[in-house]
Amino acid sequence: MLHLFDIKFQEKDLKLVTNFDNAIPEILLGDSVRLNQIMLNLVSNAIKFTIEGEITVSVKLINEDADNVTIEFAVSDTGIGIPENMIATIFENFEQATTSTARLFGGTGLGLAIVKKLVEKQGGTISVKSKINEGSTFSFALSFQKVKPQPLSIIGITEVEIDTSIKNLKVLVVEDVALNQLLMKIILDDFGFERDIANNGKEAIEKLQSKSFDIVLMDLQMPEMNGFEATETIRKKLNSNIPIIALTADVTENDLAKCKAVGMNDHIAKPIDEKQLYNKIVELVKK
C-alpha cells in the first residue's frame, strides 16, 4: 500500500521510515480493505501536512494469546502539528486546525472522520499526539484472529463471492479525490474488473464517448461538473442507458430523490462496503 505514495514522497523530498515488528504472525484474519482505507487516509494526511523531514509508519505487536493478536499501527510525521485546543475535534467532519492551515494545505475533508468510524467499527480506538511545528502521531490498535498456515483459501481480501459468469467487466470510476481513487482501484482489482478513472463529470463524458464501459460509479460532489450534471448529460445528450451507481459520503433523502430524478440506478454510501458494491454492480450489469 505504501508504494502507492512513492511519487508523492519523491515530489516533496520526504523520507519514508518503516518499522514492522517481526513478532507479528505471518497470516492473520482481518479486514484488509478497511485497514488499507485507514492507512491510506493517515499516510496521505501526513504527507499533505509535512513540508520537510520524514513520515514513519510502524506496526507493532502489543498483545497475543492462543487465538488472537492485538496490533498497534502508527503514522508519525514531522509536519506542522495540531494546536492542543483542536486535538479533541480533529476527527470531526471537515474540521480544520486553522483557517490559515486551510488556505495553505487545503481541507482534510471527511478523511479523519471516516478513519475514526472505520477503526471503532472494528472494535479499536484511535488517538493523536501532536506538537506545533514538530509533528503528529496518529495511532490505533486492532485485534486480528490467528489462523493456521494451511487453509489459505479462507483468507481473502474481502468476503465477496465472485460470480464467475461475470468476466472482463469494464468500470468507469468518476471521483476527484486521489485517495478515494486509490481505494476504488484496490477494491475493483480484487473483484477482477477492469477500471478507468475520471477526475470529474466532464472527463467522464469524454471517456464514455471514446471508450466502452459496462457500468459507472459516480461521485456526487466534484469540480468542473458534478455527478448529477454528468448523469443528466449521459442520459439526455448521450442517450445512454449505462448503469450508474452514485457514490456518496453523506446520504440525505433529498440527494437520493435527486439521484433517481437525474437517472441514477442505485447508490452506495462511503465508506464503501465492498460486498454490497460487488452485488450491486453484478445485479445491474446482469439486468
Per-chain topology:
Blueprint: H1 6-12, E1 15-20, E2 28-29, H2 32-48, E3 54-64, E4 68-77, H3 99-105, H4 111-121, E5 125-131, E6 135-146, E7 170-174, H5 178-191, E8 194-198, H6 201-210, E9 215-219, H7 227-236, E10 244-248, H8 253-262, E11 266-269, H9 274-286
What can you see in these coordinates?
The protein has about 290 residues and is of the alpha/beta class. The protein has nine helices and eleven strands. Strands 1, 2, 3, 4, 5 and 6 form a six-stranded mixed β-sheet that branches. A five-stranded parallel β-sheet has the order 8-7-9-10-11, sandwiched between helices. Helix 7 links the parallel strand 9 and strand 10. Helix 2 packs antiparallel against helix 4 and helix 6 runs parallel beside helix 7. The relative contact order is 0.11.
